[in-house]
Structure formats: C-alpha cells, structure tokens
Specification:
Layout lengths: L4 H10 L15 H10 L4 H12 L32 H11 L10 H5 L8 E4 L3 H4 L11 E4 L1 H7 L8 H7 L4
Antiparallel strand pairs: 1-2
C-alpha cells in the first residue's frame, strides 16, 4: 500500500461533505457510496467501536521494522492543487499593527531563538479563506492574527479551526 493511499482515501470521502472539497466525482464511485451509506447512520460510539475493531485487527498492525533495512523517502510525485491567493500587503499590515508576537502563546520567535528566527511569524485568517468567497475584501487588523508556527499548526488541527481564545486557554505555561 503506498504511503499516500490513506490520505488519498480520506480525500475521496471528503467529497461526501459539502464543506470539504474532496476529489471530483469520488462521491459517485459505487464502492465509496456503499461504504459511506453503511457508516453515515452510525452513532459516534458505534463508529468509534467499528474503527477500533478494524485498527485492532492483525492485518491493520504495522509490521515490525527491520532495523538494518533501508527506509526510502523522497519519491517525486506530481500533484495538482488549487489554492486561495493571499494578499502580501494584508499580511504586512497585520504584522505592522499586531507585531511579531504570537497572539496565542505570546512568544516572539526572534526573542526566543535570537537573530536566526527574527521575523518568523505566520498570519492566520480568523475566518478560513476557503469560506469567505471569491474576491473578499480583507481587514488585516480584524480578519488576520499573527501566530507562531506551532500555535498556527494547533489552530488548524481540526476543521473548523480552533479559535485563538481556545488555543490560549489550552496553552500550558511551563
């Protein structure tokens, strides 16, 4: 089974949900329709138990890794994606207003790591850009927020993304 096959399978099932793009036409594949129909009416508990039974099957377990066997990575795969354009001026205006401090953990990468990380910050769209529509006029101060790479990753750990406030409340000070 190729490494990307589980992601591809998930992307195919995404086509069944209106808020997810998925692969065009995947929702018409009879095998996918049959599986979706058999699972969509299960309760969360029933679905959880079904997944656990599959995961605990012997065939689902990863084989022992041979420590002396080579592990290969870096196979070139050609993909085609559509992306939403970001406005670099909106990013700059957000940073100019809010600064380079993460609005979740309050860390500044330059202060934390020194000159090597000075200026590193990601700009998060409070409302996902995929939901705002075509040619949305963005307000860089109210629609964007600077986040460090770690907090930005945490915010996007679910769909819809966590709010900055949810991540702030979960953040544990060491």
């Amino acid at each position: 089974m190729p490494d990307s096959s589980l992601k591809r399978l998930r992307d195919e099932y995404d086509a069944f949900f209106p808020h997810r793009a998925g692969y065009k036409g995947a929702e018409k594949r009879s095998s996918r329709v049959k599986v979706n129909d058999s699972l969509k009416n299960l309760s969360e508990t029933e679905l959880h138990e079904k997944v656990l039974s599959i995961v605990n099957e012997e065939s689902a377990l990863l084989p022992e890794i041979e420590t002396d066997a080579p592990l290969w990575e870096g196979k070139r795969v050609k993909i085609q994606v559509s992306k939403f354009e970001r406005n670099r001026y909106a990013r700059a205006a957000c940073i100019e207003h809010h600064g380079l401090t993460c609005q979740c953990c309050l860390n500044n990468m330059g202060e934390l790591y020194g000159a090597i990380a000075d200026g590193i910050i990601e700009v998060h769209h409070i409302k996902p850009i995929s939901e705002v529509g075509i040619d949305y006029q963005i307000d860089p101060i109210n629609d964007l927020v600077p986040l460090c790479p770690n907090c930005h990753r945490v915010v996007h750990k679910r769909n819809p993304p966590y709010t900055v406030e949810e991540v702030q409340s979960a953040f544990k000070k060491i």
